[in-house]
Amino acid sequence: MKNEQLIQQQFQARMNEDELLNCMRCGFCLPTCPTYIESGFQESHSPRGRIALMKAVVDGLIEPDEDVERSLQLCLGCRACEPVCPSGVRYGHLLEEARDIIAQHKTYSPIVRFIRHIVFKQLFPHPKRMRMLTALIGFYQRSGLQALVRKLGLLRVLPNHLAMMEKVLPNVPTWKQMNERPTHIEAETKRKKRVAFFSGCLMDTMFMDTNDATMKLLQLAGCDIVIPPTQTCCGALHGHSGEKADAKTLAKQNIEAFEALDVDYIVTNAGGCGAFLIEYDHLLKDDPIWAERAKSFVAKIKDVSVILVELGFHLEGWRLPEQIVTYQDSCHLRNVMKTANEPRLLLQSISGVEFREMKDADRCCGSAGIYNIIEPDMSMQVLDYKMAQVKQTKATTIVTANPGCLLQMKLGIEREGLTNVRAVHLVELLLEAVEATKEANEPVKQTG
Amino acid sequence: MITEQVKRQFIQIVGAENYDDSKAGRLVYSYDATPNFQSLPDAVIAPRNTKEVSEIVKICNEHRIPIVPRGSGTNLCAGTCPTEGGIVIIFKHMNRILEIDEENLTVTVQPGVITLDLIQAVEAKGLFYPPDPSSMKISTIGGNINENSGGLRGLKYGVTRDYVMALEVVLANGDIIRTGGKLAKDVAGYDLTRLFVGSEGTLGIITEATLKLIPMPETKKTMLALYEDLEAAARSVSAIIANKIIPTTLEFLDQPTLQVVESFVNIGLPTDVKAVLLIEQDGPKEVVERDMKAMARICREQHAISVQVAKTEEEANNLRTARRSALSALARLKPTTILEDATVPRSQIANMVKAINDIAKKYNVNICTFGHAGDGNLHPTCPTDVRDKDELHRVEQAFEDIFAKAIELGGTITGEHGVGVMKAPYLEWKLGKEGIAAMQAIKRALDPNNIMNPGKVFAKSTRKRVVVTR
Ligand SMILES: Cc1cc2nc3c(=O)[nH]c(=O)nc-3n(C[C@H](O)[C@H](O)[C@H](O)COP(=O)(O)OP(=O)(O)OC[C@H]3O[C@@H](n4cnc5c(N)ncnc54)[C@H](O)[C@@H]3O)c2cc1C
Ligand code: SF4
Ligand code: SF4
């Protein structure tokens, strides 16, 4: 009871009342909300309902009880409700603040508290520890342990979705590879731009191949690349899980790492990270000095697909063996970074690729950060819908632009038993096209 | 109040998963799209079929529990705000299209079907359901019928009322009746179908509806006429109709509306002109072309500075979407958005536009106007802030003046948004005491215990009529 009062007070003190009032309750956002649809049209799991609940807590109409918390918890945070809102309600900001307040006052069980502490404080903010963890996974994968565990069926003790998750983890790099990361790379063709690369925490460990592919493409497109080693995790995970203070610390460290560099853009290749970086100005808005610094940082953030299109990468006649390709939007890339056309343009430009848009490609896949771990039921329900749409296209390659989505698509493939379908990050497919085109061209060169 | 025993009865009918009396569950059905109205119901019930609806209603009638039937809660008259508590009935389970009858050109649906889903389903078969309220992507047919909603195509094709052929209704005593039929002609008794259309949930609960369809028009063209002068735009509307042309769509947007809408849709709407008319015509190709030419000429004669025809269907669709988002986009401007629905005979539209501007000046309030000009139906909208009591009071006075003016011009206080709680105090201005008495007699006959959406349509007291001296 006492706790609820504290939360209520914090809601009154911290929630942006103008933003809450800005929702005119027209309901235009309802048809795009995955949790509204999958919950069988429950208003409490819709954006309009969630905003009303937050407002009611501020107004003192209701207490922030379990059901209110549940409603906010079940939100994917996909922000599909924002671009369709004619009133321009920034729902994501409201959600983030509300979750932060609740998390700060929540009495988690000791075990959950311990896990949150390890993840948010001890792991993600520390690149070296991220590398160590990844190396451990690498050991697990390469030492034969994985094979043994699988053979003995030891993973049966895990809930089904976690056991499958283990299967779809990428083959991670070695400790040595992770520690030999470049800090400077030169353009491979005529230099057109100088960019900084945001390498990310998970991306530069677990998904190092994706990062390498990204840099290779930038090089080919004519970018000199700087990768400042002092950068750190973007803080998205913290921000979305109610650990805003930590997110701010990370934000400041990143701004410092990049602001002195003389670059045209700061390039990201993960929609989830990019979207969080591009809102640093909002995150730091109450801190005048940092807010200013954040603004110039934010102005430079661009997804890799945007830069490739700007530099005409899609006009170079890349080729791939014939295949049907479909694209699953990364929610945050689309709804927050407003990047949706460029990835499609790039895919459509590859000859051999038959691009087929799936129905509701812009609907969340249910990955949503760590959502698929903490809300497996809703997450799998959302995923099942997604896979049904994928199947309709008969695509053999599913392309995404965010590591979380990529894992989720792999999980979907595994669940559906689609043996001839693969999921890849956009940059990996593009690099594949580059290599295939080169190979195809070589004999021509010899004879010609 | 719902006693434990009654609660058990409800649960027995619909199952525990379809009965919600949690605080959060009730809160999210305490509002609709009307600003400044909120009130908690005692419970929310989701019946699965007509029989369950009837059983619920019987219990409510016996225990005098108010019932608020609710579609998607997008109405703008506080029609689904449970001002007297009781239960909210939602139709999330009753949302199926039951039949598309291509021989009789009808579609039969449950009340929870989303308007746009219905439109798309019939269009897939080459058929056309014209009523398209701007809220169609989320509004329900049950809501449309009960508000008698109009839309962008109303000028030529009429409103929801013109398409309702038959209804299944649960009355306040639990009786299930069927009105009308798939019939082109039917004079067997009173036209109850029409009585229930626009009844705002106060006479019964619609559990099924058969709607009329028409063949898809062959072609369609869309254009935008730009004006430096509001009244010139309004005069064009009357002139087009006086020239015996009935376009599909004839919509009006003023500059402030254009500006906010453009900031949402980003399609390059003209934001430097004082007003635009969005004009559409459909039908056989030759007719469409002839009418579009004639209307462009008329607009120019009325001093349109330019007339632009949409080149692609995508462009046309963008223009329609832009128009449909007008109201919600205006909500960007200020925390509270109050809009009205005054409607006048088409010939009076220019006078009404002028009056709105004068009234805005008189009370020093900012009024943006858009609307179904061809229907004589304007939506003067006032971006304000509930926390600014002084301004809110002036807004209220301005809108009272607007109502009075509309009636003076031979119009009405609401063209399509309904009376609900919002306009109940003004209903007598339009109907007179006798008109209200006649309607109340019908209400009492069908719902003697006043359980069906009580507090709506009929006010406890009528506003004093303001006298407009102008
Ligand atoms: C942005 C915006 C734009 C709009 N544009 C238009 C427009 O262009 N034209 C227009 O006419 N309206 C418009 N409206 C108003 C509103 O959308 C319509 O009135 C719509 O028909 C309401 O549908 P709903 O499903 O939301 O019904 P609700 O708001 O849930 O209910 C409306 C009324 O119907 C009753 N009701 C609902 N279902 C049943 C049932 N099964 N049985 C008995 N009673 C029932 C309710 O009690 C209530 O009185 C707009 C609203 C918004 C927010
Ligand atoms: S969030 Fe936006 S779209 Fe959704 S109900 Fe509120 S105003 Fe309408
Ligand atoms: S963020 Fe996604 S899940 Fe959450 S309310 Fe918005 S649309 Fe629904």
Automatic annotation (TrEMBL), chain A:
InterPro entries found in the cross-reference section: 4Fe4S_Fe-S-bd, 4Fe4S_Fe_S_CS, Cys_rich_dom, Glc_ox_4Fe-4S, Helical_ferredxn
Cited Pfam families: CCG (PF02754), Fer4_8 (PF13183)
E.C. code: 1.1.99.14
Free-text comment on the cofactor: Binds 2 [4Fe-4S] clusters.
Domain 4Fe-4S ferredoxin-type: 11-43, 66-97
Cofactor(s) recorded in Swiss-Prot or TrEMBL: [4Fe-4S] cluster
Catalytic activity: glycolate + A = glyoxylate + AH2; (R)-lactate + A = pyruvate + AH2
Protein name as catalogued: Glycolate oxidase iron-sulfur subunit
Known role: Component of a complex that catalyzes the oxidation of glycolate to glyoxylate.
GO molecular function list: 4 iron, 4 sulfur cluster binding; glycolate dehydrogenase activity; metal ion binding
Entries under Gene3D superfamilies matching the protein: Alpha-helical ferredoxin (1.10.1060.10)
Keyword Repeat: yes
UniProtKB/TrEMBL annotation, chain B:
Cofactor(s) required for function per UniProt: FAD
SUPFAM superfamilies documented for this protein: FAD-binding/transporter-associated domain-like (SSF56176), FAD-linked oxidases, C-terminal domain (SSF55103)
Listed GO MF terms: (S)-2-hydroxy-acid oxidase activity; FAD binding
Key words of the record: FAD, Flavoprotein, Oxidoreductase
Keyword RNA-binding: no
GO cellular component term of the entry, any: glycolate oxidase complex
UniProt keyword Flavoprotein present: yes
Start and end residues of each FAD-binding PCMH-type domain: 37-216
Entries under InterPro entries matching the protein: FAD-bd_oxidored_4_C (IPR004113), FAD-bd_PCMH (IPR016166), FAD-bd_PCMH-like_sf (IPR036318), FAD-bd_PCMH_sub2 (IPR016169), FAD-linked_Oxase-like_C (IPR016164), FAD-linked_OxidoTrans_Type4 (IPR051914), GlcD (IPR004490), Oxid_FAD_bind_N (IPR006094)
Signal sequence, start to end: none
Family membership noted in the UniProt record: Belongs to the FAD-binding oxidoreductase/transferase type 4 family.
The protein's name: Glycolate oxidase
Biological source species: Anoxybacillus pushchinoensis
